[in-house]
Write the structure tokens for this entry.
Amino acid sequence: MTTIVMKFGGTSVANIDRIKNVANIIEKRKLEKTRIAVVVSAMAGVTNDLVEKSKQISSNFSKEEYDVLLSSGEQVTASLLSAALQDKGIKSRSMMSWQIPIVTEGQHKNSRIISINSKAINDYLDKDFVIIVPGFQGISQDMRTTTIGRGGSDASAVALAKSLDADRCEIYTDVEGVYSTNPAICDKAKKIEKISYDEMLEMASLGAKVMQSTSVQKAMINDVEIYVKSTFAPEKEGTAILPEDKISYDKVVTGVAYSKDDAKFTLQGVKDRPGVASAIFKPLYDNGISVDMIVQNISADNQKTDVTFTTKREDYDKTKKLISGLKDKIDFEALLTDKDVAKISIVGAGMITHPGVAFKMFNALASKDINIQVISTSEIKISVLIDEKNTEQAVKTLHSVFDLD
Ligand code: ADP
Ligand code: ASP
Ligand code: MG
């Protein structure tokens, strides 16, 4: 018998009518004699609301209690959906992560799932139950409630699909699949029929939040095939996320992603000597701050250089303080910072075999008078940092230049 995992995101379960709609979708699948485990997100807006509440209590809200608080949203949806199924005469029960258990390791707020006891769930699936599991939450080895990072229900679904050895993992969301760019800002965005794990991982890490990046990484490592579909048009074919060998590339660029999560720092007039880069980045490493893009200019006179880098915008204040504190260790003239930046990326495995992609990208942006501040590349992506106000224009321009419209 086929086993499937179906995950429903926040907008899909945003209110009672939508939860009843989800129950109808599950009921239809149940008629196909399928074993079904469901992962649910919190109702749209609930997790953000809980974050706000924690801030109102304390700016120092403990991370252990934060996880207890935030995981509650998913519990509410799990019970409502299970009861909606029961109301239709379908056998169903919710199972909290501590009841299964779904064990995690790592820091609170950002834990990783390391094991799921599939036996507990399989026993119920064998008895024809639909099992509803709250996404995003787990339990640590010392029995504390944990959460696995924002958007983490996608990763819960993939982990569950792996542990149940499911035939499919279906991610139901508010768009019909993965698009060539975010359809919310570009009306010419096209649904992608099939995309490789590598490309999806780049797209997700570079801002396409339709899939959370950890979930894609997990799927890639464990060969879990993902199907992204719309909760509001479940009969339509969505996007399949598959291994590379199941895909043929007819385009150089598969998608355009953007994010507004970065902040830029430039150290001007840094005295050029061996060890200077390491001196700049050591305090960031010591404080768990990830650095993304880096450029160091060649110093024409071998005397002074400029170093530019980006961090997550949420680390802006901490980074500014740490770098300002380096004045007595390294010699630099000024620290310039900018939070109004956006990172625009083109992603595509087709790039590997096609020269001139970078030129085409830079030329297209130049034609719209968009200045490129920082560039970074990998085998299958090129990212540029630009002024945030040009985000939409840059995305639309690149989408059209690379024949994605
Ligand atoms: P869910 O609550 O179901 O997890 P999310 O809000 O996390 O849904 O992700 C879906 C959203 O991702 C879409 O509404 C869309 O605006 C956004 N998105 C960004 N980039 C893309 C893309 N390339 N393709 C599809 N959706 C995208
Ligand atoms: N509810 C959590 C969040 O909003 C997890 C999720 O929806 O995937 O981040
Ligand atoms: Mg999501």
About this structure: The mean pLDDT is 96. The longest helix spans residues 63-87. The radius of gyration is 23 Å. The first strand starts at residue 3 and ends at 8.
